[in-house]
Amino acid sequence: MAMLEIEDLNAWYGASHIIHGLSLTVEQGEILALVGRNGAGKTSTIKAVMGLMPRATGRVSFCGRELLALPAHERFRLGLGYVPEERRIVPGLTVRENLQIGLVSSRAPIDEDEAIDEIAQNFPRLKERLGQQGSTMSGGEQQMLAIARAMISKPKMILLDEPSEGIMPVLVEEMGVLFRKLRDSGITLLLVEQNVEWALKLADRAVIIDQGEVVHRASAASLLANAEIQERYCAV
Amino acid sequence: MDVQLIAMQLLSGAVLGAVLVMTALGFTIIFGMLGVVNFAHGALFMIGAYAGVAVAMQTGSFWWALLVAPLAVGALGLLIERFLIRPLYNRPADDPILLTFGLGYVLVEVVRIVFGNDGIPFSTPAALVGVVNLGIGYFPIYRLFVIAVVALILALLWLGLEKTRFGLIVRAGARDPQIMRVLGVDMRRLWFLVFGVGIGLTALGGVLAAPMRNVNPEMGALVLAEAFVVTVIGGLGSIVGAVVAGILVGLVVSLTSLVAPEMATISMFALMALVLLIRPQGLFGRAGA
Ligand SMILES: Nc1ncnc2c1ncn2[C@@H]1O[C@H](COP(=O)(O)OP(=O)(O)OP(=O)(O)O)[C@@H](O)[C@H]1O
Ligand SMILES: [Mg+2]
Q: Which of A64, A219, B93, B115 gets the most CB atoms within 10 Å of its CB?
């Protein structure tokens, strides 16, 4: 059984029908790259999984549990982490508090100080800034914080919406190393990216969507080698 | 005019402000988090005062009234949220306004039916009767007690918000409810509790005010206007703003009544207009919010 199974997903913003019968699966312990041009419906797909689309139908199951009937907060508690496209660092809260909110509803009791220490090993820059207001950090640091906040509750799977956007190349490389490490420790990743080449190098498999539908599925390696398909569906 | 008189009047203003803060806090928190302008807030202040009267009559003790009435009215607030406000969350913003507006009238009428139109005197508890010499003049002990209670409640609120996990959830949920939902927080449950706490605070304001004012069915009307003014001056949804603006309004009203008593109520609206001109988001409001 796949970890995440999306079958015949349809989703709407008000009257606009955005996702049209989309199906995909993510296997336990893999990185799946979800790519496609601007407006293809990548963010909407992730939001439907997390419970943030105003309306969604079809079937989405995570570890065998049907998600669409559950409110967003209960989906998180099944072990789903989410790094939103806009990062959503909460203003008025320090870096430490922004990490703490990742723990307030975690499945198992987690020692806060221990968890923050552990996070600090992966993100040394955050460690130096635990007392700073999260929203005053640089874009790259905020992205790290958003990733750390999703990791801290030890989810089984993390959905990442364009984590490399606006981040300087050195940090993007570091991020790649981190994602591999997460995968090797058994965490499943769904990686939405505009930085297609980088995502394909990291991922095991790739799914391309266009206008709310899947248009191509392949192993990441073969898609990386296929410039024509990349050009057709991902060029901006 | 002599300095001592002004100082005493400022102290009276602080008492007035302290009661206002209790009401305005709940009003602004409920607006900031739930997005509901609670037009029943003044009526619930009045209900708090009557609940205080009722408990004091039953038990013969002001202290029981001070403790039980806010809790009971807070529980009423929970019921109001659960059965009247919650069904309207996905509806246009006007709907909760109309609902709470109507609810305010219903509560006033119910109190009229049960307790009658006339005001009920609520005597100052025996232990707090009398005045104390502050060096600049004599001041009622009960009024100092009101300031102390409000200061204590504010300190507890601050500790709760800054030092507890629940407080962290409230602060974060006020700024970004959506991210809290995907971090596993049931925002509806949070709103439910926040509404109850907000109503409990205004009820406490009602009980505290009761010995200083005439307890009557209309006493909430001015309080609602005052809470509204304080919220606008302090900045919509700002807790610090509600505290500072509440005290400020108390002081301004009190000083104005010293020189021109008939202008006292108007002065508070003038202050609001002034703040809106200079700083439209309010003293502690976030621009664009
Ligand atoms: N809040 C909204 N209300 C209405 N339509 C929306 C909303 N958000 C997105 N859309 C529309 O839904 C479609 C899919 O948007 P989505 O954000 O899922 O695309 P995306 O693949 O993530 O794009 P990008 O690469 O630019 O992030 C677009 O046509 C967009 O205009
Ligand atoms: Mg997107």
A: B115
Look-up of token digits 């080449």: A197
What is the identity of the amino acid at B217?
Answer: P
Fold of B2-278: ABC transporter involved in vitamin B12 uptake, BtuC (1.10.3470)
Residue A147: helix, strand or coil by DSSP? helix
Question: Model's pTM, two decimal places?
Answer: 0.92
Nearest CA to ligand 1 atom 29: A39
Query: Mind listing the pLDDT tens digit for each residue in B2-42?
Result: 888 899 999 999 999 999 999 999 999 999 999 999 999 99
Residue A236 has pLDDT above 70, yes or no: no
pLDDT at B288: 55
| Chain A interface with B: residues with Cβ < 8 Å | 50-52, 71-77, 82, 84, 88, 90-93, 97, 100-102, 104-106, 149, 153
CB A52 to CB B181 under 8 A?
yes
Q: From the CA of A161, how many Å to the nearest CA of chain B?
A: 14
CATH C-level class of A2-79+156-233: alpha beta
Q: Which residues pair with A94 in a beta bridge?
A: A133
Which residue type occupies B93?
Answer: A
Q: Which helix (H) or strand (E) holds A12?
A: strand A4-13
